[in-house]
Write a structure and sequence with these properties.
With 362 residues, the protein is α+β, with helices and mostly antiparallel strands. The protein contains eight helices and 20 strands. Strands 11-12-13-10-4-14 form a six-stranded mixed β-sheet, with helices on both faces. Helix 2 (34-43) crosses helix 7.
C-alpha cells in the first residue's frame, strides 16, 4: 500500500530528515542525532510534525452521551476550552485506542486519535452512534505541529497576541498565530517538557512552520523526529499504543485507572470495575537498567531465580539518564517501586530496578 504523505513532507525531505514508514505515513524519524534532538526539547525548544494523527469532530445534542459511552474518562467534566486524556475500552477488557477529547463549544467536540488506529477508531465509534450524532473525520485536512520544550512559550509568544502563559495545562484557545487564523493552540504534548500543540488546516501549515522557526532562531529551535518523541515519552512513562497499551491490555493494568471513571456507564465498565475491585495479576511499570544493556520490546523480564515474570513493552537508552530504561508488564508482586528485576538480553540476565514514573523531572 502506498504511504500517505503529510502536508509538509517536502519540507522534511529538504531538511535532510530520515524518513520512515510509520502508521501508513511517510514520517521524519530524525534530522540530526537522537541525543541532540532529545536534549533540544528537554533544554530549549523543538518542533515535531505529528500531522499523521487523526481528528474526528462530533456535534449535536447526543455528542456528549456518545463520548461518555465510548470513553473511559468522565467527559462531562470538560469545560469549553478544555482537553482531556481518555481511552476507548473495547468489550473484551482491552483498549481500542487512547485519545484526547477537546470541547470546542456546547455540543461540539474534537477527538484526536492515533494515526495507526484512525480507521479502527472511526468504525468503532460509528458502531456505537445509535442516536444520529453528526460525525466528521477530518484527519486528512489537518496538520499538527507540537512545539515542545521550556522555551516553547517565549518562542510562540513572539508570533501571537494571545496570552499563551494564561493557557493552562490541558486547555486550549482558538486564536491567531504566525499570521494564521483559527488555530487550535493547545497546552498539551507528549514530552513532559511543556509547550503547545497547534492544529491548523493543511493549507496554512507551511506558513506557520516557517514563522515558528523564525521566532525560535535565537533559542536554537530545531525540527525533531519521531525517534526523540519516543525517548522523551519513555522517560515520562507515557504509554504508546501498540506497545504499552493494546487490544488485550486493560486500562487498570496499564496504570490508567485515573482516566477510568465509574461514576457513569461506558463500554465494558462493569468488567473493569470488577477488575479494579478484585485486583489485577499484572501491572505496567517503568524501570531503569542497573548494568549496560538496552531493553527492547518483547524481551523477557525475570526474577532473581530466572523465572519469567513479565515482558518489556518499550525500551531505549535514555539520553537524560545515560542508561537503559523501559516499560513493561510484570506480575503485580514485582510492581512496587525499587523492586529488583532482570531483563533477558541475548541469553543473559541483566539487572534492572522498577521505578516510579516519571523517571526524570524536567
Amino acid at each position: 500500500m502506498e504511504l500517505k504523505k503529510i502536508a509538509l513532507d517536502q519540507i522534511h525531505e529538504n531538511l535532510g530528515a530520515k524518513m520512515v514508514p510509520f502508521a501508513g505515513f511517510n514520517m521524519p524519524v530524525s534530522y540530526s542525532s537522537l541525543m541532540d534532538e532529545h536534549q533540544t526539547v528537554r533544554n530549549g525548544v523543538g518542533v515535531f510534525d505529528v500531522s499523521h494523527m487523526g481528528e474526528f469532530f462530533l456535534e449535536g445534542e447526543g455528542a456528549l452521551n456518545l463520548i461518555q459511552r465510548v470513553c473511559s474518562n468522565d467527559a462531562s467534566k470538560i469545560e469549553i476550552g478544555g482537553a482531556q486524556y481518555s481511552c476507548l475500552p473495547n468489550d473484551t477488557g482491552g483498549i481500542v485506542d487512547d485519545l484526547l477529547i477537546y470541547r470546542l463549544a456546547e455540543n461540539n467536540y474534537m477527538l484526536v486519535v492515533n494515526a495507526s488506529n484512525i480507521e479502527k477508531d472511526w468504525e468503532w465509534i460509528k458502531k456505537q452512534n445509535t442516536n444520529g450524532v453528526s460525525m466528521t473525520n477530518r484527519s486528512d485536512e489537518y496538520s499538527l505541529l507540537a512545539v515542545q520544550g521550556p522555551k516553547a512559550v517565549e518562542t510562540l509568544q513572539k508570533i501571537t497576541d494571545e496570552d499563551l502563559a494564561a493557557v493552562k495545562f490541558y486547555s486550549f484557545i482558538n486564536g491567531r498565530i504566525g499570521g494564521v487564523d483559527n488555530v487550535i493552540i493547545s497546552a498539551t504534548g507528549y514530552t513532559g517538557s511543556g509547550g503547545f500543540e497547534l492544529y491548523i488546516p493543511n493549507a496554512h501549515a507551511e506558513t506557520l512552520w516557517k514563522k515558528i522557526f523564525e521566532a525560535g532562531e535565537e533559542s536554537g529551535i530545531k525540527p525533531i523526529g519521531l525517534g526523540a518523541r519516543d525517548t522523551l515519552r519513555m522517560e515520562m512513562g507515557y504509554c504508546l499504543y501498540g506497545n504499552d497499551i493494546t487490544d488485550t491490555t486493560s486500562p487498570i493494568e496499564a496504570g490508567l485507572g485515573w482516566i477510568t471513571k465509574f461514576n457513569k456507564e461506558f463500554i465494558n465498565s462493569e468488567f473493569l470495575q470488577k477488575q479494579k475491585e478484585e485486583g489485577i495479576s499484572k501491572k505496567l511499570v517503568s524501570f531503569v537498567m542497573e548494568e549496560r544493556g538496552i531493553p527492547r520490546q518483547h524481551y523477557t523480564i525475570c526474577d532473581e531465580n530466572g523465572n519469567t515474570i513479565g515482558e518489556v513493552t518499550s525500551g531505549t537508552q535514555s539520553p537524560s539518564l545515560g542508561q537503559g530504561i523501559g516499560m513493561g508488564y510484570v506480575l503485580k508482586e514485582f510492581s512496587r517501586a525499587d523492586t529488583p528485576i532482570w531483563i533477558e538480553i541475548r541469553n543473559k540476565h541483566i539487572s534492572a530496578t522498577v521505578k516510579k514514573s516519571p523517571l526524570i523531572r524536567p
